[in-house]
Amino acid sequence: MSPDLYQLAMAVLQPGFEGTTAPDWLRRALGEGLGGAVLFARNFPNDQLIAQMRAESPDVVLAIDEEGGAVTRLEATTGSSFPGNRALGVADDVNLTERVARQIARMLAEHDITLNYAPAVDVNANPANPVIGIRSFGPDPELVSRHTVAYVRGTQGAGVAACAKHFPGHGDTITDSHLALPTVHASREVLAERDLPPFRAAVAAGVRAIMCGHLLVPALDPELPATLSGAVLTGLLRDELGFDGMLVTDAIEMRAVAAQYPPGEIAVRALAAGADAICAGLVDEHGLHELRDAIVAAVRSGRLAEERLAQAAERVRALAGWYAEHATLREKAVADADPGAGLEAARAALTVTGAATLAEPPLVVEVNTRLNQAIDPATPTGITAALTALLPGTTRLRLDGQDPAAGLDLGAEPRPVVLVVHDAARHAWVRETVARAVRQRPDVIVVDTGVPDTPAGAAHLATHGLSRTSAQAAAERLTR
User: Fold this and answer.
1) How far apart are CA 175 and CA 195, in angstroms?
2) 221 closest CA partner among 208, 235, 242, 209
3) Which has the minimum average pLDDT: 135-149, 315-329, 337-351, 426-440?
4) Domain termination site, one of 335, 362, 394
5) What domain count does the chain have?
């Protein structure tokens, strides 16, 4: 038994934590070989935290979900400066996608963050998907593949590691894995033609990390979710697709797996299946030690081969080494700012039906602005703020709860009305709210920040995503 077994167990853990400074227990853990950590909006704004962590362990893998669009941690309170994947796919300019990815990586490089848990390379094959949607480049595998390559190139060309997710593909689900275990009901042939090409493209592009999703895919493994399946993680991803980088789990507290097993058991099973790093979105010292001790106990009992654990730890160290070797790329990326990339992409993605110009401050009615579990609750839709900047006096009415507009009467409203909805294509009650508003106010302007439905209203704008720049592009179009 290796004398550094505890250190090996610590090396494969990537915990999230509370606070804008490094807790004492986290510093101790870094000194004991903790290999990584994941950062959230709750940890910012504060570079002191990262400096504290790097001081304890210069090679710690610091990861973050900075997809752009709806999923942002560094800009959660203002909205992202960059449109998300669907907007990039609608614009369909791979050079623009690469520029946006490079600028997001530039932001991470300024904070000394090792790894971006992006891009999401899921093919959004199911329009009813509650958690991927606008986080995907689109429903076409070839489009998703080419933008995946551009995103990986832009990120890693800036000296920050990219992470393609959620293997083997979260696009054809109707369940959010934060809440329950989704099942992908597709044949292996469909998976090979639809879901796997973007991952193959990412591997060919040299992506440094891949994140597995908490998904049951019976065609690949009828019993175990991908996170815990050797057939999926080792047989398919390693042996068939040839990926040899760091494989990280999605957060293990998500109900898709947490409803079945305790955290330590999930960690052991995932490592045995082929994962290299265990992402735990929020733990304390006790929780971290539980994970470590479960891994150590599994090795001692023979359930987890020490060689497999050592291999996983080495892949984590290899990613840290790659980051250390590419400091020059980060310096160049920080120096070469491209401040217009985000707004340029948002403008290119905007689709408009009808014609309407706001000549006076409107009433903005926000219908369903609480989105899904992957999106920080503080992230704003941004349309009201963007219109207020151009038309001072703009006011907002925010409706909460399903079918909140049942008693809404816009007919007597003297001001122009802008109705902001999200993912109307997924919600019958949102479509009915739009129809009701159009009946009451034929001149209503509808802005959809998600996957849009058939255009309705005097004018219909689809931003194809939530970001500060997407909102700005829409506001500009309505006031020009």
Assistant:
1) 17
2) 235
3) 426-440
4) 335
5) 2
